[in-house]
Every structure is written in structure tokens, then in C-alpha cells.
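User: I'm putting together a small comparison set for a docking exercise, and I want a reference complex before I start. The sequence is below, and the ligand is uridine-5'-diphosphate. Could you produce the 3D structure with the ligand included, as C-alpha cells?
Assistant: Of course. I'll restate your input first, then give the C-alpha cells for the complex.
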Amino acid sequence: MHTGVVSQRSDLRPNRIAVLSVHTSPLAQPGTGDAGGMNVYVLQTAIELARRGTEVEIFTRATSSNDEPLVEAAPGVLVRHVQAGPFEGLDKHDLPTQLCPFAAEVLRTEARNLPGHYDLIHSHYWLSGQVGWLTRDRWRVPMVHTAHTLAAVKNAYLAEGDTPEPAAREIGEKQIVAEADRLIANTAEEARQLVELYGADPDRIDVVLPGADLTRYRPGDKAAARAEFGLSPHERIVAFIGRIQPLKAPDVLVRAAARMLAEEATLSRPPARPLRVLIVGGPSGSGLERPDALIELASALGISDRVTFLPPQPPNRLAQVYRAADLVAVPSYNESFGLVAIEAQASGTPVLAADVGGLGTAVRDNVTGLLVPGHDTDDWAIALRRLLNDPAGLDAMSLAAVEHAANFSWAHTADGMLDSYAAALSQSRAGHPLAGSLHSDSNFARSQVRSAGSPRALLAGVEPARRRRTGAVRR
Ligand code: UDP
């Protein structure tokens, strides 16, 4: 397993890569449905890779007739909306049936260019990994895969009554682990899970920490941020931000807040600043089965007037949500990393998180927030009280949080990815069974294509010369 920085040899830096994100578009609003941290990750790392000279073409399934086939998301970053199945009516669990049409479209897109159009494939999530492995074989370029979440891990940490991930997903993930040239894990713990639960080869895993947009998420005027959302300057505010589903456990926060409020109601001198829970996001995954569950829970616990719900917020508004809060809670049953925890800290807001998965890396226990083992309501109420009733302690954590979050930038993540790509290309040159002599072919072809094949040229309809055998995939 590789956690250090390998120097990126410039001759091993890909000029153009195909990024596969089958089930969710990097252009979608995160925080609801299937759109979350992975969308942010794919887009932000693509932007940073393009800044470093690697063009990125992201393939994602079109889910609306309004999705343009080709969108320039940023300089050097194209999003290709692939038509595979109907726009509406398919959820994530139906998508394995659409991997064939998706793969066919990806292959056809590549076949419209000279050989060697893409130097490498990076697939995100297991659905994309299935397509990635096929395209890798056809194009004879290395495939790097990031799982983002793993079925075996999700199922081991399931919330009570939540639906487990299907066995077929775990089978698919095992195939990808066996097939990918390299795996990128978010944390050392995820790397360990890949080895122990999926039999991955530790020498083919690179640990690359995710990041946050540190220019957007930074401390600011709390009172102004609260005013923007009509929130009182006189309340203690704890926020939950993200996709609302049992795995993310916003109910743990609501129950703990109800417990804390009940205890405070019995005090002869209740705290002067009342408690408010702010929930930002929309239903997702198994949470879609009962989209009003959290509203009903707050009502059943008698704290509806203490809970404010906001729909998913775009990044600029979200930065203000982080600033408005005194504390951000991340009570998830599992997180492969937890971008919200880093964004909150970068904005100067300490984090109260469950001590699971990547959150142990994202939060420094007792320094930038608190990590709670388990999800017991009493434990969470105690932790909430300890943090929210100690303004001086929270101020100190806020300063430490900004310092800690400064270690996580997308620029750093992209550098780690390029190191992983360099390792994959070097492996491939050194005689990967599928690589053969194709790299020299692709370098030759690339030199011919580059001038016509820039994203701008493609958008303008100036597709590079069509290969001789149009419509057919080479080899
Ligand atoms: N997010 C957003 N608007 C919202 C809620 C969330 O843009 O209203 C984004 C947030 O900035 C973060 C991502 O969604 O980058 C959630 O990522 P995280 O890793 O915390 O959770 P995931 O969705 O991957 O489970």
C-alpha cells in the first residue's frame, strides 16, 4: 500500500483520461438523491487534474432530456452525458441492467477518435468499475478505480432496519478489485478493508486523501450567515448536512437534541441560548422510502419548533450554512471519508462525529471536535452538551479546525491521483499482460490528435479525424 508521495514523472503523466461516473453526474446538486460527496470529488479532482495539464472527459448517464450530450464543466474538463436507458424511472439498483448500453456508448465515443485518445481510465464506484474493466481491455490502457463505498463495509455497519446492499454488488466489487490496475483508497482504513474483505493486493493500492475547496470553505461572519437563513443570532445551532437516509443517521442527532432539551427543561436556570437543530439536504437511498421520517420523528419527540429543515444548498450557500452553525454533527453509521466534516472545519466550525470509517481521519478527537463511539442517544446528548455549553472550548476547536482542514485540498488529492496514474502507467509499460506494445502506438496517435482534440475543439464540433473503421471498436 502506498501512502507517501511518489514523484510524478512527467513522461508518465496522462495527457487525457476517461473518467467513468455511471450513476451520478458531477454536475448534479449534491446533498439529495444519488448526488453526494462522490459528485464533488469527481468534479473537483477533474478541475485540478486539468490545471496540471491532464484533460479529463467524464462519462455519466443522462438522466434528463435537458442534459446536453457534451458540456464543458471547466477548462479542460468535459462531461459526456451518455444515453443508456430511459432518463427517468431507473434508480441506482436498476443500473446494472444498463451497463452494457453505457459501455457501448463509451466505446463508440472513443472509436470516433484516433487510437490512443485516452491514456488511462479512472472509474468511480462499482457500477463504473464494471464498465472500466471492459474499456480497459479494449483500449489497452491502465484502469484506476476508486470504490468510494464498499458493500461489505456498508452491510457490516447497517443502521437498524436499513436495507442491505445486494450480494451482486459485492461480487461486482470483488471482480473490479481483481481487475483494476490500481485502486485508490480514501484512507488507510479503506485500504485495509480492500485487502481484508476483498483480497486486494496491497502493492496496487494508493491511499489518497480527499479534500475540500479551501477557497470557498473558510471562516466568515457568523451573524451575517445566520441572517441569510433567518436564523437567530441568540441560539446554539447544531447542523446536519447531507443526504437524508438511515446510513447518515440524522435521527441520532435529533434524538440526542431532544434528550438534551428535555434535561435542560428540568434545570432551575435553563441555558439562555436555546438549542436549534438545522437539517440541510434531501432524501436519498433507502431514505426515499420514508421522506418525511425525520419531520415525523421531531414531531413525535415534541421538538418540531427546535428543528429547521433546509433543502440542499449550492456550494456558495452551503459555505454560509457552515458559518452559521456552532457545531456540525456527522452521526453516520459509516463514512468512507466524510467531506462535510472537512468543509465544516475549513469554515471554522468544529465537528461532532461518529468514530467510524474515515471520520477518524477527518476529525481530530478533542482538538477539532469530538468523536463518539457508537450511536447511543445518551452518549450523543452528553457530547452535544459538552461542546455547546463551552463557548471558549468551541472557539479553541474552531481555530484548530481551520488549521487541520488546511491539510486537505483538492490540489493535494489531484497530486496523489497523478502519482497513482504514474504507477499504473509504469506498471503497464513494464509489461502488464494487456498493455502489450500499445503505449507506443497511443503516444504516436496522441501526437497527431492533440491539436484537434482539445475539449474546446470538440465542443465546437471539430472532432478529431475519424478512424478508418468507423463504428467498429478497434482490435
Ligand atoms: N452538499 C451540498 N449541498 C447540500 C448538502 C451537501 O453541496 O445541501 C455536498 C457537500 O458539500 C459535500 C457532499 O455534498 O461535499 C457530501 O459529501 P460527504 O462525503 O459528506 O457525504 P456523501 O454524500 O459522500 O455520503
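Residues 434-475 have pLDDT under 50 and may be disordered. The pocket of uridine-5'-diphosphate is lined by residues 30-31, 36-38, 40, 241-243, 280-281, 312-313, 315, 318, 337-340, 343 (CB under 6 Å).
User: Thanks, that's exactly what I needed.
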